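Listing 4. Sequential folding, example run.
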Amino acid sequence: MKKLVASLTAVLACLGPVAAQAQVKWDMPTPYADSEFQTKNDYQFAEDVKKATNGALDIKVHSANSLIKNPEIKRAVQTGQVQIGEIFKPNLGPEDPVFELDAIPFFAASYREARALLEVSRPAITEKLMKQGLRVLYMVPWPSQAFFTKKPINSVAELKGLKMRTYNAQTARLAQLMGTVPTTVQATEIPQAFSSGIIDTMFTSAPTAVTTKAWDYTKFVYDTQAWVPKNVVFVNERAFQALPEAVRKVLLEQAALAEKRGWEWSQRDNDESPKVLVKNGMSLTAISPAFSAELKKIGDQMLDDWLKKAGPDGKKIVDAYREKLK
């Protein structure tokens, strides 16, 4: 009998790590398609977490609005409907101006500037989301935003009356200042919106243009390098705290690696995706100096508007950012 008990104890000890696999399952909605580098990074993060925890935490990524629609993802994570999610951070601008600072045109337009801005604004971003029960895991930028049109554009005046794709308050304001008609269109709906005449023009990253096969619905792309906005991945804090300490530690370690990898992939795609657009017949050029000056003036106005909304706390971030760039 003692031998039998000893044998069973040994078997259960061996099964312990296996039994722990998939003990906790999380759902992770994201609005973006599987082909986007952001989503690929999420899949890699989930795979690495599962492997590093020996299956104790199993995160299932649900891409392309398949589980939760884009505008509802943050609320779903807050309420615990899902445990973790990804959104475009500037979409949170109506809640607090700090979330949309990286989407102001020509303010932080290079990767160096985007990194500096994230470093000085991260404490405020993480603190504000934590107050809502959300822990920031990682933030990854999209490549710099280019300008796509059906016809050549050389000035703001030539845009008047065109329908421009928007996806948050900042891009809607930009559309208004450019004299275009703001038209809300999600990333997965871009091809149909262009083809059906719902929109005539848009700002977006070159990788998104490749994903949506922009050459099928538009012709001209201008390398404006307008801004480098970021996605944010966050987790419900209660769900995070419910994990064993060792699993929490692994989750944060893998999140740091996902952020580092995401920045590297973003810069890679920033270099490679424009080549794919040209290869497929699109016309890629820099905007004219006059057009660039007009857009820069609009960006300066949007920054002034932002500073008025953000108040002293916002000015501290902008001042710290400019000091860091020196």
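-- end of first protein; second protein begins --
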Amino acid sequence: MPPRFDDAALARLRELLAKRPAVEIEAPSLKRACVLIPLVRDGDGWSLLFSRRADNLQAHSGQIAFPGGSVEKGETLEQAVIREADEEVGIPSSRVELIARLDDLITNSGFLVAPFVGVIHERIEYVLQESEVVEVFEVPVSALLTPAQPQIRYVTFRNRRYPAYFYPYDRHEIWGLTGRILKAFLDVVWTAV
């Protein structure tokens, strides 16, 4: 039986993340982006919200992702992540509480990504930006805390092989950048449950 991620675990996670400053990478030549790791109340537990990107997008088409995107000129990372979550899946800024920033990641496609953990305390009606997002789904955090998760497989990108984290859930498979971010997040969650 996987550990339960409930309100007490969320409180411990907040404490752990507050003591752990994010590693910020200086790489001005890379495109700056951010993603929101949305923790959504699910009864007496918590789920993570994921989206499936449209198949016609230039980058990461058809992949499972967290809401996010590029940072616009003059915008802080926090402003960008809130704006992107609202634009892509309809999470209003008033409904998300940013609780932490995780370590920056560099993608193989040339982005420097800042992941933020955000709490959505009450259920909302998602509104998808259909040009970018074709569906959203939630995965209970506890379902990702099993010994079988993640699977590690090798993938080829630009003629090089890389190890990648894969999280199968229902009919979806979470991997790529989202798998990397999810693994980093769950590594901290494991210490809170």
